[in-house]
Design brief:
Blueprint lengths: L1 H26 L2 H36 L14 H4 L16 E2 L2 E2 L24 H19 L3 H12 L15 H12 L3 E2 L1 E4 L3 E7 L7 E7 L2 E7 L7 H4 L1 E2 L6 H14 L4 E9 L7 E8 L3 E6 L5 E5 L5
Antiparallel strand pairs: 1-2, 3-8, 4-5, 4-9, 5-6, 6-7, 9-10, 10-11, 11-12
Length: 319
């Protein structure tokens, strides 16, 4: 029973390692690289320890079984008068029954040599039934599924991106398809929809917002690798929080991707180096979406309302 449980635990660990590899590829999260780097040597060490233990048990069993009797040795339990027979090389007398000569019992029928594979049990070379192997595969799959639990949301996004014909850039937080879902996760961590700035990058969103709703200090929050979290105090604290604070509870965050794609089409900048969308409020003005695009030779800047209406554009791309 202990060997069975140990085997299942190893299968779960193998499945979990496979799940971590998949999650690392899907999310790009560096923590999975650390888990894999630590998990592979640990799993290899466990397998080696178990293998050494099994080998030791097999050697012990072989030693206890003893070696077959050799020439001129006797079979245990044979009559004493027979086991003391002395063979004369020049005599025509036959050895007495019960004597072993060259490892074979004299006077007994030869023992047939088993044909290799004749003792194999149904279900495979190792005697395992098909259902046992299927259970092993299911155990590995269960380990992988458990490791992938935190990444199910991102995996679902990949499926929808493929359906939308954007399998590679659908998760880009500047031009992709999931700004609203990421923002919803951020709201749960922030505890409200009032912020001082929202910055959009290719793989994450950074938000500056009150430490708690109604607080006079500001923390930095991030959505990254499929999860929203509080990073800590913001780099700088505003002198007048109320002047910079604005509410985006009624905004559709997918508008950001729309205006970024529109800006790229208008600017027509080749070899784009960076795209920098953000939402800010300046002085007593209404919050705006700002899109900055820079390339090797030209740059462009756009301003939009939160509903996506263009207010102005500028930059060397239009000179």
């Amino acid at each position: 029973m202990r060997r069975v449980l140990t085997g299942k635990v190893i299968q779960l660990l193998v499945g979990a390692l496979i799940g971590f590899i998949i999650a690392g590829i899907v999310t790009g999260d560096e923590k999975y690289i650390v888990i894999i780097a630590v998990g592979v040597p640990v799993l290899f060490t466990i397998a080696m320890v178990i293998g050494v233990g099994v080998g030791a048990r097999r050697r012990t069993s072989f030693t206890q079984a003893g070696r077959p009797p050799g020439i001129n040795s006797t079979i245990p339990g044979a009559p004493a008068s027979q086991t003391e027979t002395v063979l004369n090389p020049v005599s025509t007398a036959q050895p007495s029954a019960g004597v072993v000569l060259n490892g074979e019992l004299v006077g007994a029928s030869p023992t047939p040599t088993p044909t290799p594979g004749a003792a194999a049990k149904p279900g495979g070379a190792q005697g395992r039934p098909v259902w046992w192997r299927a259970l092993g595969i299911l155990t590995i799959a269960a380990g992988a599924a458990l490791a992938l639990l935190p990444s199910y949301g991102t995996i679902g996004w990949i499926a929808s991106d493929i359906a939308a014909g954007r399998p590679f850039d659908g998760r880009d937080m500047r031009t992709g398809l999931h700004q609203q879902e990421a923002w919803d996760q951020l709201v749960e961590v922030i505890g409200g929809t009032e912020v001082t700035s929202i910055l959009f990058y290719d793989s994450y969103i950074s938000v500056s917002a009150p430490t708690t709703p109604g607080a006079d200090t500001v923390d930095r929050f991030e959505w990254k690798y499929g999860h929203a979290s509080r990073v800590g105090p913001d780099y700088s604290q505003p002198s007048d929080l109320q002047q910079e604070l604005f509410d985006v509870g009624d905004m559709d965050m997918s508008v950001v991707a729309q205006v970024v794609r529109q800006s790229l089409d208008e600017a027509q900048i080749e070899d784009v180096d960076s795209i920098y969308p953000s939402i800010r409020r300046f002085a007593d003005e209404a919050p705006e979406i700002n899109v900055s695009i820079s390339g090797v030779y030209y740059d462009a800047s756009f301003t939009y309302t939160l509903s996506g209406e263009q207010l102005q554009r500028s930059g060397s791309a239009f000179d």
